[in-house]
Automatic annotation (TrEMBL):
Signal peptide: none annotated. The keyword Lyase does not apply. This is starch synthase. Its EC number is 2.4.1.21. Gene3D superfamilies: Glycogen Phosphorylase B. It comes from Chryseobacterium profundimaris. The lineage of its organism: Bacteria, Pseudomonadati, Bacteroidota, Flavobacteriia, Flavobacteriales. It catalyses: [(1->4)-alpha-D-glucosyl](n) + ADP-alpha-D-glucose = [(1->4)-alpha-D-glucosyl](n+1) + ADP + H(+). It holds the Pfam family Glyco_transf_5.
Length: 256
């Protein structure tokens, strides 16, 4: 079914990240849908390892310049864009000096999770939502990949609930085996600042509990990895949200 507007929100995509299943799967899904005549956009964080020169990223001035307020602090939102190498597929990068300049993803050199991973996820989720609105581009399907993207449906169904912009978009969540890590114990205060409360994940805030939480806020869940970790598999089996076992990339359009 061509002519759909499909938004991929991801934390990884080949060639910006290599050697991970998620990065490969997102690349193949987005290219397949793009080549079949759909209007595809990809959004991801501009992590410090992504070379702006190598991949020819440039700032989109008309989209940058917004501030995202997190826990009463203004954080400037910078939007960069590049075409996927060799393809006419646009990838947008959410950037901010405070959150994404560092060279590691979620853990420091000693293997400790960053204290502000929660704020980085909130900033990414809200940054994507606000930028899509500024683009004046309304997706039919939003496909989430990577734990940071799990904050998007939570925000859409709470903070943005009265905003009709995304009301007709269907949300698909792909599950991957990602390294678990605790999130800041005061994340409840930061979410409360955005009038979000009562989440089960706040009892034990972590990467996995927020992914599990987001399952209640989407229209469809699919296994991104064929075999999931025990905790993730349990949450997948217990959710009442419609779900699908692992699909190869050639079958992904059936999901949409």
């Amino acid at each position: 079914m061509p002519n759909q507007k499909i938004l991929y929100i991801t934390t990884e995509m080949y060639p910006y990240q290599e050697d991970t299943n998620m990065a490969a799967v997102v690349n193949k899904m987005a290219l397949k849908m793009h080549n079949e005549g759909n209007d595809v956009r990809v959004f991801m964080p501009r992590f410090g390892q992504i070379s702006e020169r190598k991949f020819q990223l440039h700032e989109v001035i008309r989209l940058s310049g917004m501030n995202i307020i997190i826990n009463d602090l203004d954080q400037p939102l910078i939007i960069k864009v590049a075409s996927l190498p060799g393809e006419r597929l646009q990838v947008y990068f959410i950037d901010n000096e405070e959150y994404f300049k560092r060279k590691q993803y979620y853990f420091d050199d000693e293997g400790n999770p960053f204290d502000d991973n929660d704020e980085r996820a909130i900033f990414f989720a809200r940054g994507v939502i606000e930028t899509i609105k500024k683009l004046n581009w309304v997706p039919d399907v939003i496909h989430l990949n990577g734990w940071m993207s799990s904050f998007v449906p939570i925000y859409l169904k709470t903070y943005y609930e009265s905003d009709a912009y995304f009301k007709d978009a269907k949300i698909v969540l792909s599950l991957y085996n990602e390294k678990d890590a605790p999130l800041a114990s005061n994340i409840n205060e930061k979410l409360k600042f955005d009038n979000i409360s009562g989440l089960k994940a706040l009892d034990n805030p972590s990467v996995k509990t927020f992914v599990a939480e987001s399952m209640d806020y989407v229209d469809m869940i699919v296994k991104g990895d064929e075999f999931l970790d025990e905790d993730l598999d349990k949450a997948f089996n217990e959710t009442s949200t419609p779900k699908s076992e692992y699909l190869d990339v050639d079958s992904i359009n059936q999901l949409y």
